[in-house]
Automatic annotation (TrEMBL):
One function term, GO molecular function aspect: DNA binding
Name of the molecule in the record: HTH marR-type domain-containing protein
Keywords for the protein's UniProt record, in alphabetical order: DNA-binding, Transcription, Transcription regulation
Top-level taxon of origin: Bacteria
InterPro entries noted in UniProt: HTH-GbsR_regulator, HTH_MarR-typ, WH-like_DNA-bd_sf, WH_DNA-bd_sf
UniProt organism field: Hyalangium minutum
Region annotation (Disordered) ranges: 156-176
């Protein structure tokens, strides 16, 4: 397990496998650089805040790469920046609400794409039946998907408050 004190930092082989697996997942499925997924994995495991240099050292990557990715993650709400008394460096922790921000990001992106589509569709001429059909189908899909994301966010918020709707299944836990 990862600790924040420089002398105690170590990653177990299991930690390393987790970090690498998350890096590959985020690279393949989420469009993040692999280092970004690895950084998130490390911060999820860390029991104390980590400085940029420590993250770079543990992952054996350049501090510049860590800095670039950490700024993006901070903007997206995946990590939080904190200061420690008597230390001028910036430290980072995995945000307790990291993935909840994904609902807002998705809704914002879907709203934007719908506006782009509707704006262009309004300018189609009477002879653009094929294009109109494509735009209508695309708008219908993104509008439906936006509703699914909105509903999911509402279910998640209700679940967090302890009032989860009965239609939302509880996660399964494997017993080892």
């Amino acid at each position: 397990m990862v600790d924040g004190d420089k002398d105690e930092l170590s990653l177990t082989p299991e930690d390393q496998r987790f970090i690498e697996s998350l890096g590959l997942h985020f690279e393949d499925k989420a469009g993040f650089p692999r280092i970004g997924g690895r950084m998130l994995g490390l911060l999820m495991l860390a029991s104390k805040p980590l400085a940029l240099g420590t993250i770079a050292e543990l992952l054996k990557v350049s501090p510049a790469s860590v800095s670039t990715n950490i700024r993006s993650f901070h903007t997206k709400g995946l990590v939080e920046e904190i200061g420690l008394p008597g230390d001028r460096r910036h430290y980072y922790v995995f945000s307790d609400t990291a993935f909840e921000h994904q609902f807002d990001d998705a809704l914002e992106g879907l709203t934007e794409i719908l506006q782009i589509m509707r704006t262009r569709m309004e300018r189609l001429g009477p002879d653009d039946a094929l294009r109109m059909q494509r735009f209508l189908a695309t708008i219908e899909f993104f509008d439906f998907f936006r509703g699914v994301v909105q509903s999911s966010r509402e279910h998640w918020n209700a679940r967090k408050k302890g009032a989860a709707p009965s239609s939302v299944p509880e996660p399964t836990r494997s017993v080892s």
